[in-house]
Amino acid sequence: MSLYLSRTDKNGHLMSRTGRLAVFLLIIAAVGGGWFAYDKGMLPFVASKSQTEGDAAKRTGNPALPVIAEYASIMEEKTVVEAVGTGRSTLGVSIYPAVSGEVDDVLFHAGENVSRGQVLLILDSDRERLARDLASVQVKDAKQLLDRYEQARPLGAVSASEVDAARTALAEARIRLEQAEVDLADRTILAPFNGTVGIPQVEPGDRVDSSTLIATLDNVESVLVDFEVPETRFDNVKIGQSLRVETWSLPGEWFEGTVDSIASRIDAESRTFKVRARIPNPTGRLLSGMSFAVYVDIEGKTYPSVPEISVLWGDGGTYIWRIKDDKVERVPVRVVKRTQGRILLEGPIAKGDLIVVEGVLRLRPGRDVAATIRGGDETGVAQRNGTGEGS
User: Fold this and answer.
1) What is this structure's pTM?
2) Nearest CA to 195 among 93, 48, 266?
3) How many CB atoms are located within 10 Å of the residue 233 CB?
4) Which H or E run includes 229?
5) Which of 217, 220, 193 is CA-nearest to residue 286?
6) Which backbone phi and psi does 299 adopt, to 5 degrees?
7) CA–CA distance, 102 with 205 (Å, rounded to integer)
8) How far apart are CA 359 and CA 363, in angstroms?
9) DSSP string over 237-269
10) DSSP 3-state of 271
11) Share of the chain above pLDDT 90, in %
């Protein structure tokens, strides 16, 4: 047992001496190489180069990112309410005779422009003319009798009651004359106002009464268009407000008008209220009964406006990049409305703020940027075409 331990101990000592010798030789080689490099001036050169690169990186920093920016503008929120309405003439009537009789003559043609008081139709009126003449004679006789009584009264030839009776008879005769004249006038049908008359519905010789349609008459110097608007817009529609209409009868043509009147209540079933528009029609091309598409511009608040491509969405919500002192900052915003490639925003954005529109993907808060500005100017007036949504 003692001999085995001695052998093991001896081998272990031999291996330990070999390892120490190898390490010693490596140390001598390293020291000698370092001394050689130092002697040749290589170490100062390496240290100097490393220090120079570090100073350059520290001095230069991250280069400014090129971006394209645009000034924020101010726009008014505009909503277009669209509706369908039916037109009618400002003045329009269906003409019926006041009395029965036979048509004696028709004095108008379809589409003719007539004036107020112009004769349109005459009914036979022989009896009414005779009644008028008889009433006229009775008035004349009653007046003569009253004149004689008044002359004889101072002489006592007639009593006061007889004079009063003669005076009453004259008044009654005059009333009968007026009634006869009214009956005779009813045999002639006149145009109640200036307008365009429709197709005659009767001919000479026809027997008519108060339920017989003679013709229609319309004044279309302006056209009224009735349409309905949702109750949510009741406070937005005002009398005199401008609007525009188009009709399928005249495609591609627009006609300007104004709100003429507004209903005083909301329809409980449709949840809408009625609005009437007045459309000037100097050429007479718009007719009663036409259907119209109506567009009413509803003005709203003013908001900052930026190009649509500048608005981003992230974990924290909607935001944009604003440039200040050649650095970018992330500004949270809320989208109000999109219109023609631009977005109306709510947020701490002012007119004239410089907003990044292209090159946003590599941006970080505080990053230096080199901005190329396009469109508009610092006044915040956007250089673009268009009038708002629905235009």
Assistant:
1) 0.57
2) 93
3) 15
4) strand 215-230
5) 220
6) -80, 145
7) 6
8) 8
9) --TT-EEEEEETTSTT--EEEEEEEE-SS--TT
10) coil
11) 63
CATH topology of domain 94-208: Helix Hairpins (1.10.287)
Q: Which residue has the tokens 């909301």?
A: 266
Distance of alpha carbon 275 from alpha carbon 36, whole angstroms: 102
How far apart CA 259 and CA 237 sit, in angstroms, is 8
Specify the CATH superfamily of domain 221-300. Answer: Efflux pump adaptor protein, beta barrel domain (2.40.30.170)
Whole-number Å distance between alpha carbons of 96 and 314: 73
More confident residue, 294 or 388: 294
Distance between CA 332 and CA 347 in Å, rounded? 7
For the stretch 165-202, pLDDT in tens is 999 999 999 999 999 999 999 999 999 999 999 999 99
What is the token pair recorded at 39? 């002697």
HEC states along 277-293? EEEECCCCCCCCCCEEE
**Helices and strands: H and E segment counts in the chain:** 4, 20
CA-CA distance, 299 to 15, in Å (whole number)?
98
Q: Which CATH class is domain 65-76+301-373?
A: mainly beta
Cα–Cα dist 360/198, whole Å: 68
Strand partners, 349: none
Break the chain into its structural domains and give their ranges.
Answer: 2-57, 65-76+301-373, 94-208, 221-300
- Tokens (6 digits) for 78: 């505009």
Please name the helix (run of DSSP H) or strand (run of DSSP E) that holds residue 371, with its range, or none.
strand 369-373
Quick check: 20 pLDDT over 50? yes
The CB density around residue 72, as the number of other CB atoms within 10 Å, is 24
- The CB density around residue 222, as the number of other CB atoms within 10 Å, is 17
Closest Cα to residue 370, out of 331, 333, 323? 323
- Dump pLDDT digits (tens) for 111-170: 999 999 999 999 999 999 999 999 999 999 999 999 999 988 888 888 889 999 999 999
